Amino acid sequence: MAQSDREMTISELSSRAGLSVSTIKFYIRRELLPKPIKTGKTRGVYNRRHLYRLQLIQKIRKEGNLGLEKIRAITSVMDAWEEDERRERKPASSEQEEVILDAATALFRAKGYEGVTIADIVEGAGIGRSTFYKHFRDKKGLFIACLRRIILREGIPEPGTEGEETDLFTAFDKSAQSYFRDSPLWRDMIKRLRAAAINDPEEFEGMLEEALGLKIDRFERRIRKTVEQGFLRAVNPKLLAVMLLGIQDSCAEYISRGQFDESPDRLFEEVKDIILYGVLQKRESSESA
C-alpha cells in the first residue's frame, strides 16, 4: 500500500477529495469531519477515513439534499459507532484509563462539563498530557466515556453474552438494584450535560442525545431479547425503554430526597408489580360476562 494511501497532508486530501482546503477546515470546525491525526505540536496528517468521510458528505449533500446539521447528526452516529468498534477491538481498559475516568467523573460532577479543563483532568489523574491523549481524543469523548462506564456498570448483560441470566426478569432486577446504587453518578452527570446544552445548544444538544441514546439503547436491546424469548408480549421496545428510564430516574430522585417511607427494596417490588400487572382493578366475572 502506498504511503499516500495511509497518510496525506491537507493539500493532498483537498486534491483527492476535490474540495478546497477552506471547506475541509470548515467541516472539521463543524465536527462533520474528524480532526487530523497529530504527528507533532503543529502538524497533523489525514488518512483514507477522512477521504471517505468527505466523499460521503458530498454524496449526502448532492443526493439527499440535507443541510449541515442533518449531516452532522448522521456523522455523529458514525463516529459513535466507530468509537464503539475501536473499544471492542481494544483490550480491557488499562488501570491508567480507569484512573483518568475516575478523576474526570469526580471533576465533572463537582465543576460541571464547562468548568473542567484538560489541565484539571491531567492534574487530578496525576498524568501527563501525552498520556491523556493516548487514551482519549478530547474532553467531549472523555465525558461520553464516563457516562458509558456508568451505564455499563448497571448490571444489564448484553444479549448473548457469557453468563447471561436465563430469567430475564432477574436481569432487570439486578439492573435496577445496581442503578439505584450508581444513580447519583448518572443523575449528576446528566444534570451537568443538560446545563451545558442549555448554555450552548449547538455544541451540546447532540451530545445529550447521544448520552441518553446510549442508556435507552441498552434498555431497548434487552427488551427485544426478552420479547423474543417469550417473557414479555410484543411491545414497542423503544417506548418501553424510555418509560423505564423515566421511572428509574424519577424514583431514584425521590428516594434520594427521602420522599418515600418504604425501603428501596420494597419500592422495587411495588414498581415491578405495577409495570407487570397494571393499575386497573380486576372486575368480577359477572360483570365481564
Give the overall silhouette.
globular
Percent strand: under 5%
Please trace the helix and strand order, writing H or E for each element: HHHEEHHHHHHHHHHH
Distance between the termini: 78 Å
Within the largest sheet, what's the order of strands? 1-2
CATH topology of the largest domain: Tetracycline Repressor, domain 2
- The low-confidence runs, each spanning 5 or more residues with pLDDT under 50, are 1-5, 89-93, 155-166
Say which CATH homologous superfamily of the largest domain is assigned.
Answer: Tetracycline Repressor, domain 2
Could you say how many structural domains there are in total?
Answer: 3
Number of helices: 14
* Main pleated-sheet profile: 2 strands, antiparallel
CATH architecture of the largest domain: Orthogonal Bundle
- Mean pLDDT across the residues is 76
